[in-house]
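Assemble and predict.
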Amino acid sequence: MRGLKPTQPEIPQVIPAGTLRHLSPEEIKPSTNNPRLLFDPDQLQELKKNIGEHGVLVPITVYQAKGQAKFSILDGERRHRCVLDLNKEGHLGRDGRPLKLPANVVEPPTKIAGLLYMFSIHNFREAWELMPTALSLKIVMEELGEQDDKALTKLTGLSEPQIERCKKLLAFPERFQEMSLDPNPAARIPSNFWIEALPVLELATREIPTLKKLGRDRATDKLVEKYRARKIKSVIHFRRIMESYDLSEGEPNTRAAVLRRMEEFFLDPSLETRTAFDQFFVEKKRVQTALTICEEFLHQLQQLKLTYTADDEERKNLRGALRQVREYCKSLEQALRGSDDPEVPQD
Amino acid sequence: MWRFFHSIKAALRFHDYRPQPVTFGAANRWVKQFDKGDRKTAGRLLDKVIYLSEVNTRQILVDQNAALMKRLAAAGLPAKKLIYVQVHAAGSSSPVMLNILRDAAGLERLGCRFLDSRDSLGLNKATNEVGEGALIYIDDFVGTGNQLCGARDFAIRSVVGAFSEFLVVPSICEEGIYQLAQRGIVAFAGHVHSKAERPLHDNSTLLDKETKERLRLVCKGISPKMSLGYNELATMVILYRNAPNSVPALLRGNQNQTPFAGIFPRTTDLPLKKVG
């Protein structure tokens, strides 16, 4: 994997044009990303109170798109929102007039600079809006010629797992991507569907001859059809398929049975995920054991009173071991994340 | 005498109303449905209708668009930087208006692009290619602006780059202008429909209080839920293709046109014709 190197394209910046103006909130066009959905209401309330007492102290950053009378916000969405609310409530500034915002007016950002700003907002977005983020990431990757996850994290502010998820979405042909962009939430295929389905599709089209012959796109169609028929009740259930396969390692008969069931699952639209795969694993028992181990591990460590370890060598070894534990736990915790999208109807 | 006069006038003014032609007989029958005392007012109400014929509509679209293109060209945005966006499904008003404008103004030859607001991938690609430009939404009539803004809010998520936003529309209500302005969308409209122009609206003084109240009661009798149209806008703009859903019920009539037949039924208000 390539890291951030001096040869990497420079991160585009918004270049201040050096014009400071005082704008009324009505002269400013709100962000296309609805801030009410994106910002913590308590923090917003706190900021509003502060602005009510002292006014806006730090200028917001705005630009004027060609042909547009209003200014678009690059930075300062929350301050704008607060001033708008305060003025609506009849709050007046120290000069006895409605509040204005000091604004640094800059040149319209380049496409990439605008996108990177947008990413800083998209970080707050819910998973079900991941597809537009993925499309934007694709543009960043193409324009800057950057594919490395770490470099992209630095550029966009997205976490590595988020970037990984976006890349999974981009691995699907456009006709499938479009299904996650459907304006009708009831018809929209959630982004998580593709993310969770990808390993299953890869496995099935690699290991099962009929599905290999069918091809990945047609196999994907089969899953979409099944999902629309409500035979995949939760996208998380795709994990049961992978788990069934993994658990059958070293048991040729079970492995063959899992693959046969998987083939059947793809080809029979009426076969539901849990009905098909529940027989192959005993999740609850394993998870219960893991929970007990976590509890005991913590308890034992606390009992050892290690905080005051003085020996340098011992401290070094212990920190190394703890780092290993932390890394594993972090990766496991991230792997366990994921959920159905909020608007997916549940049984 | 006056009833004939109003009916003749209506037939002449509204003859090209598509869902159901307004003939002398149709206008006369419509007026006769009112109580005798209200017939004169009902006839006069038709004088307050702001009717946009096909010719008017095309001309307004072309003129407003020309003014917008001039402004954008002056701001450094040539036709190739303009993306026209239809906001509703195929066959509804917005795509029809876009087709009319595209053909009448030769937009295709000028290098403009055309997209549907629901085509997220298309918008993403087109705006990525154009980089900086203008999105121009097209519709036939905007009432509250809710529908248009809903479509726009969905579309804008896929837009990449710095784009200013405009609306070209034959007619828009003042409520819609406010809603669009909140999003920084500038409307280029041939007509801004003020509340004062709507005889049955709360804020209008075109009718005396008593007459207004009586006609509003008639509307309520026809459609208790949509008596003054969507969001009680009580609009009086009628487009040759269809009446907006914000017109008072006495203009639209009942569903299937019974018991009260409207003079401007919407396409969906008419009874289904038997095929074959």
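Chain A touches chain B through 31 residues (CB under 8 Å).
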